[in-house]
Structure formats: structure tokens, C-alpha cells
Amino acid sequence: MAISRDKKQTLVKELVDLLSTAKMTVFAQYNGIDVASLQKLRRAAREQGVTIKVVKNRLVRVATGQVDTLKNVETGTLKGQLLYAISSDDEVAPAQVLDKFAKDHPQLVFVGGFSGEGANLSNAEVGNLAKLPSKNQLIAEVVAQLLSPVHDVTNALAGNLHGLLDGLMDYSCRDAVPDCIR
Length: 182
Prior knowledge:
The structure is a single chain. This protein is α+β, with helices and mostly antiparallel strands. It folds into two domains: 5-132, CATH 3.30.70.1730; 133-182. It is 57% helix and 14% strand. The chain has six helices and five strands. It has a five-stranded antiparallel sheet with strand order 2-3-1-4-5, with helices on both faces. It is elongated. The model has no long low-confidence stretch (mean pLDDT 84).
């Protein structure tokens, strides 16, 4: 079913808005995946702050031409039935969402991606991105590493304090009560 020129213009405008703020856009083939499964993917993606779009590749080419950072991006890989996962918050979230979905639906195959800076990514690079920890997980790991010396010092000081108290208890128990129990 053909869509009207107005609808196409609306879709292109929506894509331009999404792509201009996107930190990462990943596209994948989805041949053979039923609509119910795609709805589950959309729901899971929404929870991660990722937008899933299924639009004609020609409209995506028009939209990339209107986004300053994506004007010179190679769009030759945009062939066949593709879905686009777009995130304006996290660079790896689109790849992770699609990779997790692809574990249950092997019909979903990465084709490539566009970074927020306008770089083309191959399917192998997108696959490697999917294996990275999420942004929140990386932040938590850095905070844990930064707090590690603080915890070490606190534990060392607490250990010395316990040793001092134990020594004082031993000394006071020895003279005060012959069979003192710690």
C-alpha cells in the first residue's frame, strides 16, 4: 500500500529529529519475524530508551541528507527490509537491545550502524558494541574503583581499632577477673 506524500514528509521530519539527536543508530534485517515479536522488541527497546523504526530505506537516505553530521555517511548498505534502532542517550543501547532480541530470533541480523559523529559502522563493529557493558554499568564500575581505596583505608583503620580494643580487653581482663572470656 502506497503512502501519501504528506505522510512521507512527516516520516522524514520525524526521522530527521531522531537522527539529529541520536548518539547511535543501528540497522538490522528482520526478514521472517512476526509482528507480535516486533512489538515485544519495541517494548523492550522503549524500556532501554531506544526507538525502533521500520521505514523505507529511501526515506532514511533522505533524512540522513538533512542531518548535518550524517550528510556524508555512506548509505549503500541500506538494502532490503531493515529496522532502525535509535538512541539519543546511550551509544551501545541500540546494539544491545537488538543483540538480546536476536538470541531468541536468529532471523534478526545486524547490517551496520551510524555513530552520532557520522561514522559508518560495519555489522562486526555493531556486534562488538553489543558486547560492551551499558553506560550505567560502566559508571558503576568506575565509581566502585574510585571508592575502593576509601573502603580499604576504612577497613584498615577499623581493623587496627579492633586490635587495640582487643588488646585493652585482654589487659584489663587479666588483672580484674582470672577467667575472663572474650
